[in-house]
# Entry
Amino acid sequence: MICPRCKADSCQLISEMETSGKPYSICKGLCGGLTFGKIGLLCGFCGEGQTTKTKNYWVCHNCGHKFKA
Ligand SMILES: [Zn+2]
# Structure
C-alpha cells in the first residue's frame, strides 16, 4: 500500500475496535429494580442496542498518515 500523502511504500494495516450504543451494564441496572411488564421488553432492547465494529486502517510509517483500507 502506498501512502496517499507522501507516496511512501511503508504502510501497515491495523485494526480498531469501535463500540457504539448504550452500555449493557446501565440497562442491566435498571432491569434489576424494574422486572415486570413493558419494562422487561425494554431490557431486551438494551441488550441488543450495543454493537461492536472492527475497522481496518492503513498507517504510514513515514509521515504517520492514517487512512481507511
Ligand atoms: Zn505517508
Q: What stands out?
A: The longest strand covers residues 11-20. Strands lie at 11-20, 51-60, 66-68. The mean pLDDT is 75. The two ends are 9 Å apart (CA to CA).
